[in-house]
Amino acid sequence: MTSRSNEAIPGHPIVLGCGQLCLDYLVTVPSFPVPDQKIRATSFKVQGGGNTGNTLTCAARLGLASRILAKVADDSQGRWMLEELESSGVDTSFCVTAKDGVSHFNYVIVDNQTNTRTCVFTPGYPPLLPDDLTESLLVDVLDRVRVIHVTGRSRETELLLAQKAHSKNVSILINAEKRREGLDKLLDLADYAVCSTHFPQAWTESPSAPSALLSMLIRLPKLKFVIMTLGEDGCAMLERCPNEVPESEETDIDELHESLKQSTDFTSVLPVCNSSMVTRLKGNVTGRLYIVTAEKIPSSELMDTTGAGDAFTGGLLYGLCTDMTLEETLTFASRVAACCCRGLGARTTLPFRTDPNLAAFLGA
After folding, report:
1. Averaged confidence pLDDT in the chain
2. What is the CATH number of the domain that holds 140?
3. Is 15 helix (H, G, I), strand (E, B) or coil?
4. How far is it, in rounded angstroms, from Cα 129 to Cα 147?
5. Confidence at residue 3, expressed as pLDDT on a 0 to 100 scale
6. How far apart are CA 206 and CA 216, in angstroms?
7. How many separate domains does the chain show?
8. What is the pLDDT of residue 224?
9. Structural domain boundaries enclosing 329
């Protein structure tokens, strides 16, 4: 890891995350155990986790002023999680502490043989509730915020925050991992959506992934773009381009995706971004399709993919808040995610803005 700086860049807008915090107990094993087997771990680490905390830690290390709204128990684990976030530059002053309760925790088993990880989550209590958000807290927590990040795990609470953000013209980025109760109402308010591989098709019931991305833009008119993450295969994004009207006839999204794949350099070690022309698509959508490859990490350097998606989202938030082009933002976020995979746990190797791997983007 390079020299560190947790100071926010002067003049940069604030990002706010609302969601759950948890404590990760991470263990690496030579191979995943079979039932009734006893094995030895090769390493062990305790670290803060949870999508929201990981994403904001990443954003803060990159230099964004980062603020979190969450609830922790008044126990040693809760205090430790807040202190760890603060050490990375995340503002935790708006977090709610429950006098009675238990913090969330997560067992993470990292399989060195397959480079996969298995998570066993144990929810704590009590959850962050709408009653925890007073009107004055909502006003204060959204002050000078440019983008809020939500996941749908805290349902009604995140919806209340998102509705207030929407009324103040604050952009909303949602991570849609799987179908959850109340998620549709959050999606209706979202400006940007970052989805897991299977979510778009599961949510839209579309026959293909590209058509699912298009269906999301059709069903969610406020959405500016939707991203589908693909792990080691990178990601795909469909951007809405309402102010550009191509003269061409309507193009089939699956054919456009196949054509774009054919012209994408999947052999590149570093991430590359390939985009289509602005195209007229089904449902009166004018858009541009992007394919982004992932960085090819040598097996000797690949340690753990825990939190890679959160790191990608952190990089994405940085690009949105610093007015990078979408092409730059996507390749930058992919490089940030690759940095995360080189250490055990979601935060160990999250890069600081001085990381030489990011110099091409940040001039470090």
Report:
1. 93
2. 3.40.1190.20
3. strand
4. 21
5. 37
6. 10
7. 1
8. 98
9. 14-19+50-101+127-352
